[in-house]
Design brief:
The complex is a heterodimer of chains A (662) and B (101). By secondary structure, chain A is an alpha/beta fold. Chain A is 54% helix and 10% strand. The N and C termini of chain B lie far apart (28 Å). Chain B has a six-stranded antiparallel β-sheet, covered by helices on one side. Classes of the chains: A alpha/beta (662), B mainly beta (101). Strand 1 of chain A pairs antiparallel with strand 2 of chain B.
Chain lengths: 662, 101
């Protein structure tokens, strides 16, 4: 879905503008997945069936109308309207419509789950299909392709930690070469069987579904032609709507020329002939072009895989920032804005992809398992999109219902046709269940957690805080004491913070800071405001951080303080031990309060499972300290119990007539 | 759009200097005292801005709603169960529901 140098260019101005460069950038970023579909679609449709006109023409007709309805109409025309400040993807769409129904969270989780699960089969199927082209070369028919695919994929995952800055600029030109090759090779074959153009007539699609034996179930193979459409929407932010729409016209033409070229080659084999395991994509190439063709196809498959990997990182990162996913370490491999690398996800994807290759061994077997997940993602996007069109764009409800019905019929048909693939992909269900449950548990447990966060009126503590700050009998804890708070109003604060300041050993400080990080529904917001609750004593900072930005709270905080001092709005106090003389840097101490599930709880089975799973996920996930980007040397972590349901009815009675024994 | 009375209560209450109130609940129970804490609702679930309030009798002077042993004092009342709130500072009333009697 993304490569970062191109993405950076997009963020720096290309986004929205249409230039030759921006169009090239779009080609390299967003068409990896859908652009490499010709490697396996027609082979999957024809398979081991005898070649007939209705199968080949009908298959091509279905591919064309599927791409037209789902990719062109639904995604390119309709869904791209749903940009969240330029960003796309299922989480961005959810952020746009979440206020219109609490139930929308389930389709969002389901859609994101299946999209993420898709990430472990797209790279293997693309790379395997390309590499298997080698077996079309005379003498290499029995070449073992599995080790080559594993080496390529392992290399790809290994190099993720370095980012794609240096090679990213070659993706656009490489994909241009790829699409040029697709159309040229296709055109040569069409010239030999021009009647194939008739296949664009929807009557062939209709006859294919109605008359061809078990034709409906072949929709599972047809659907592979449009699996990249969802990824295309996820990459909206990297290229801009106009660039995508313009390049799509060219891409669709190239794709269809190639599909029709493959169909023409198949038709020339003769009625009732068989493919015998051959891939028409490579077979139709002139023999002298086979090796360059395989190299170009492998490069395109690598670019498609890279896009899927980067897209998985972005999706996980958005999920974390919208509280759908536990916090995990996110790295920035280069200084470029927006480029991220998530080591744990990289490892999971790598292991998952390698297992896929070892289990399926060939692209033909992968085709039989591929596509089911993405039908679910598409159905969920349709549902969210209907809310967007109705409530955000204020479209007439009958129009929206009509569109919803149209896409539900189309996508449900594909879903049913793909259900047959479950037996080939049963192991995916465990992976999908794991992702779904993780998101479900995290999302709903945080809701429960938040519901039991008690706030107090800060005004009641103003005098005590002033007194504590000036009470020299209490040893000074730090010059500046910083708490992270969820309170978004200036006069409220969590009770646990007040407890932390006053309970046990009171924490005396010259200045108390309360920092509230607010995750906005816009992707790239980074603003702040400051209010002084008690002059020169208690200061509250609200930092608004977009859901695509990794929060670096300590860095932001120090920058804000720097600005306040520079503007003479703040005096930095001396250190308690006089060390200011030797080190003029201010002395800040962060207190992070982490919750644990208290034994003093009574809850229902669902709540118990949710909360226990949540705290388990928290243990294996990233700590609050790392997640907020706080330097460990400046931070104190306090553990407080989350008393969710205090145990009541304690039947504790003192024995009758007993005094304290001496 | 429906008016969120919990938000009106919240805004009015924390703007007062005399925060003594009387809260009448469904079923007729009455609580007098001051609010020492509150729990926010979930906007995504269309819950009120404040779903639950912690009220303690003013005489107790309890800052964090608990005693020295950490035992919670006072009562937790849910916004959905409140019938009306009387403010002693200005003798005003917020009616959450029509009183049944």
């Amino acid at each position: 879905m993304i490569n970062v140098k191109q993405m950076e260019k997009a963020k720096n101005g290309i986004n929205g503008k249409v230039t030759a460069t921006s169009l090239l950038v779009a080609l390299g970023i967003i068409y990896g997945d859908i652009g490499t579909s010709p490697l396996y679609v027609l082979k999957a449709i024809v398979g081991e069936r005898p070649i007939t006109e209705i199968l080949v023409y009908g298959g091509i007709s279905c591919v064309f109308w599927t791409i037209t309805f789902l990719t062109t109409f639904k995604y390119i025309y309709l869904t791209l309207k749903a940009d969240n400040h330029g960003e796309g993807g299922i989480f961005s769409l959810y952020a746009l419509v979440r206020r219109y129904g609490k139930y929308l969270v389930i389709p969002t989780i389901l859609g994101a789950t299946t999209l993420l699960a898709d990430g472990i089969i797209t790279p293997p199927i693309s790379v395997a299909s390309a590499v298997e082209g080698l077996t079309s070369i005379k003498g290499l028919e029995n070449l073992p392709t599995v080790p080559i695919v594993i080496v390529i994929l392992s290399g790809l995952f290994f190099f993720q930690r370095f980012g794609t800055y240096k090679v990213g600029s070659t993706f656009g030109p490489a994909m241009l070469v790829w699409f040029t090759m697709l159309s040229t090779v296709g055109l040569i074959q069409i010239a030999q069987h021009p009647a194939i153009i008739k296949a664009l007539n929807p009557v062939y699609a209709f006859r294919f579904l109605k008359e061809y034996p078990h034709g409906f179930w072949l929709l599972g193979a047809v659907f592979l032609a449009t699996t990249g459409a969802e990824a295309l929407y996820s990459d909206l932010g990297h290229c801009g709507r106009k660039n995508i729409r313009i390049t799509w016209a060219m891409v669709k033409t190239c794709l269809m020329l190639n599909y029709m070229g493959q169909a023409a080659w198949i038709m020339n084999l003769g009625e009732n002939a068989f493919l015998k395991g051959r891939n028409p994509f490579f077979e139709m190439m002139p023999h002298w072009f086979l090796i360059p063709g395989i190299i170009i196809a492998t490069l395109a498959a690598i670019i498609a895989s890279q896009a899927m990997i980067s897209g998985s990182f972005t999706l996980r990162s958005e999920g974390m920032n919208l509280n759908f996913w536990p916090r995990i370490a996110v790295r920035q491999p280069t200084e470029l804005k927006g480029q991220i690398y998530i080591p744990s996800i990289n490892n999971i994807l790598w292991i998952g992809c390698i297992l896929m290759v070892l289990y399926f061994r060939s692209s033909t077997h992968m085709e039989a398992a591929y596509g089911f997940s993405i039908t679910i993602t598409m159905m969920m996007t349709t549902f969210l999109l209907a809310h967007f069109l109705r409530y955000k764009l204020k479209w007439n409800k009958f129009w929206v219902l009509g569109l919803l019905l149209l896409f539900t019929i189309i996508e449900s048909s594909f879903f049913i046709a793909n259900v047959a693939k479950i037996k080939q992909r049963w192991m995916f269900l465990f992976f999908e269940l794991f992702i779904f449950m993780t998101m479900y548990v995290w999302y709903y447990s945080r809701k429960i957690n938040n519901r039991f966060t008690k706030f107090v009126d800060f005004g009641r503590y103003v005098c005590e805080i002033k007194e504590l700050s000036q009470d020299e009998r209490i040893p000074k804890f730090s010059t500046h004491l910083v708490y992270l708070t969820k309170a978004n109003h200036r006069h409220e604060i969590e009770e646990k913070i007040m407890n932390s300041i006053f309970s046990r050993s009171p924490k005396r400080s010259d200045v108390y800071w309360f920092v509230h990080v607010h995750r906005t529904e816009e992707p790239y917001t980074l603003t702040y405001n400051v209010s002084e609750l008690v002059e020169d004593k208690v200061i509250k900072i609200n930092i608004n951080v977009g859901f695509r930005i990794q929060p670096r709270t300590e860095l932001y905080f120090k920058k804000i303080v720097q600005e306040l001092v520079a503007n003479k709005e703040l005096n930095l106090h001396n250190r308690p031990d006089g060390s200011t003389r030797y080190n003029r840097n201010p002395d800040f101490k962060f207190v992070v309060i982490e919750k644990f599930l208290s034994v003093e709880n009574e809850f229902s089975l669902r709540e118990g499972v949710l909360l226990n799973s949540y705290f388990f996920l928290k243990q294996i996930g990233q700590s609050d300290v790392s997640a907020f980007g706080i330097d460990k040397s400046d931070v104190i972590v306090e553990q407080v119990p989350l008393v969710y349901q205090p145990a009541t009815k304690i039947n504790l009675q003192r024995e009758a007539n007993t005094a304290i024994r001496q | 759009m429906e008016i969120d009375l919990s938000r009106i209560f919240y805004d009015k209450y924390f703007g007062l200097s005399n925060r003594n109130i009387k809260v009448t609940m469904e079923g007729g129970s009455i609580f007098k005292g001051v609010i020492v804490g509150f729990f926010k609702g979930d906007e995504d679930n269309n819950e009120p801005y404040i779903v639950k309030w912690h009220i303690v009798p003013e005489s107790r002077k309890i800052k964090l709603g608990m005693d020295g042993f950490g035992i919670i004092k006072g009562e937790f009342i849910e916004t959905n169960d409140i019938v009306k709130v009387n403010f002693y500072s200005d003798n005003s009333v917020i009616l959450f529901k029509n009183a049944s009697c």
